[in-house]
Structures are given as structure tokens and as C-alpha cells.
Specification:
single chain; mainly alpha; 4 helices
């Protein structure tokens, strides 16, 4: 019975596990795993990165069309530089 509860608890915890995505090195596909970043935003991040170099701050995303203060705040816990 204890094993069953441990298994159930582990499954519930894994549902909430979120991988942190590095916006300086992530591929198009990896960026799209972030809730709130679809194909067009992922492509915009990569294009900005290719043009301007690595991000020095997560808030630098606000320089990209479609990334306002609210959007960055929503995805901030899912990304890193």
C-alpha cells in the first residue's frame, strides 16, 4: 500500500515539474516547450539572439515584438540566461 502511495505522489509531483529553458542556447523546439512561447515567438527569440548576441537579462525579451512586461513575467520562472 505504501508503494502505491509513493508512486501516486511521484506521478503528481512530476506533472508540475517544469524544465528551465536557457534562452541563449535553446533550439526552436526547446523554446516552444515554455508555456507561452509558440513557434513565432520562438523564432523571434532566435532571430534576436542571432542579430544581437546572447541575452544579458531575461527582461531583454521585452525588446522583441510580442514580449511585453506581462508576457515576460508569466514565463520568467520557466527560463534562464
Amino acid at each position: 500500500m505504501v508503494k502505491w502511495w509513493v508512486l501516486l505522489f511521484s506521478l503528481l509531483i512530476s506533472q508540475y515539474a517544469i524544465a528551465i529553458v536557457n534562452i541563449n542556447s535553446a533550439t526552436l523546439e526547446e523554446l516552444q516547450t515554455v508555456k507561452g512561447i509558440g513557434p513565432s515567438k520562438a523564432e523571434a527569440i532566435i532571430q534576436y539572439r542571432n542579430t544581437n548576441g546572447k541575452f544579458t537579462s531575461i527582461h531583454e525579451l521585452q525588446r522583441i515584438k510580442g514580449f511585453g512586461t506581462k508576457t515576460v513575467a508569466k514565463i520568467e520562472s520557466q527560463i534562464t540566461i
